[in-house]
Specification:
With about 325 residues, this protein is α/β, with parallel strands linked by helices. About 45% of the residues lie in helices and about 15% in strands. The protein contains ten helices and nine strands. It has helices spanning about 10-15, 35-45, 65-75, 90-100, 120-130, 145-165, 195-200, 230-245, 250-275, 285-320; strands spanning about 5, 20-30, 55-60, 80-85, 105-110, 135-140, 175-180, 205-210, 325-330.
């Protein structure tokens, strides 16, 4: 087995690899029972496209034997490639690694839990060939727990569409198709893989959506629940900040500063009014002080979070660092 422990940029691989039309990226974490049937259905579906393809499994630090299963599959099928992480770092980092090391003209991420249908890849590619740059899958008949996953997802989709101006019914669907050029020039962090269509739209991409099939999970259990809702909303705030105010943060910080100063001024005026007109001493009104302090503390935390997000990007990208660590790579071209 040809195992490389290097991190090679995608353009180097492209020079050594025959032209690949579609790269299917499958992040997996403890999916030992799902990956073999998925691969068994995905390869025939891609072969019917009659175009060169590669399938890249990104093993996100699995601990259930997924790594060994993927190695065996890669030995049997050279078009199956594997990236193994040393530890679990999340779906977004896994997709970023897949994008970095893929060579296809079209990138198609999908889940590794058999809930996405491999036959739907052809639907996305057909829509892409109509002139679109990004095609997003829409799980119209979603086969998940309604309270824990479907309902929060619907609420989040409406909120994201409203804030971003990019109206999609299912941002959380992993099955999407991107022209490679639409993924150039930005990095993904946190839970931001779902916001790639927003980035692409703001860069001038044509974005559309097609209904796809969605199957109930057969093996294992979902890695996500209600706890992810808050993370997604915070990441949406970061996306809005970075795309509109990255080069002019004073507009954000300054407006908040003016707001607080105005609030403090009005509060002071009102306190003086209560003192002079109604004889209410300053120390007799503690509740407004508590409310103000709590509100200011919350806003300061959000602003510090935004600043931290910007510093993280400077740290990684100015030094050429990556936010994931690869343990091994299988079926990738050897270095010169």
């Amino acid at each position: 087995m040809d195992v490389l422990t290097r991190v090679a940029p995608a353009h180097d691989l492209a020079e050594e690899t025959p032209a690949v039309y579609v790269s299917v990226l499958v992040p997996v974490y403890n999916e030992i029972d799902n990956i073999e049937p998925l691969c068994g259905a995905l390869i025939p579906a891609l072969e019917r496209l009659h175009k060169p393809f590669e399938i890249i499994f990104i093993n996100d630090g699995s601990t259930d034997g997924t790594e060994g299963k993927l190695a065996a599959m890669a030995r049997a099928e050279p078009r199956v490639r594997v990236i193994n992480f040393r530890r679990n770092v999340g779906q977004t980092a896994a997709l970023m690694a897949g994008i970095d090391h893929s060579v296809g003209a079209v990138i198609v991420p999908m889940d590794g839990d058999l809930q996405n249908d491999p036959e739907d890849v052809a639907l996305l590619l057909a829509k892409l060939e109509q002139g679109y740059d990004v095609v997003s899958g829409w799980r119209r008949d979603r086969q998940d727990n309604f309270v824990e996953r479907t309902l929060p997802s619907r609420i989040a989709n409406k909120l994201i569409s409203k804030i971003s101006g990019v109206h999609l019914n299912d941002y959380g669907c992993s099955l999407k198709a991107y022209r490679r050029e639409m993924l150039q020039g930005f990095r993904l962090y946190g839970e931001m893989h779902r916001f790639v269509p927003i980035y692409a739209h703001w860069q001038g991409a044509r974005v559309t959506e097609v209904p796809i099939r969605h199957h109930p999970r057969r093996f294992g259990r979902s890695k996500y629940g209600l706890e992810r809702v808050g993370k997604v909303l915070l990441d949406l705030l970061v996306v809005k900040y970075l795309t509109h105010y990255e080069t002019k943060p004073i507009y954000v910080f300054g407006l908040f500063g003016l707001f607080f100063m105005a609030t403090a001024f009005l509060s002071g005026i009102y306190a003086v009014y209560l003192k002079l007109a109604e004889g209410v001493a300053f120390i007799q009104t503690p509740l407004p002080l508590l409310v103000t302090l709590g509100f200011i503390t919350g806003i300061m935390c959000i602003l510090m979070g935004l600043l931290a997000e910007l510093l993280v990007r400077v740290y990684f990208e100015s030094q050429g660092k990556s936010h994931y660590t690869i343990k091994s790579m299988v079926n990738f071209p050897s270095p010169d």
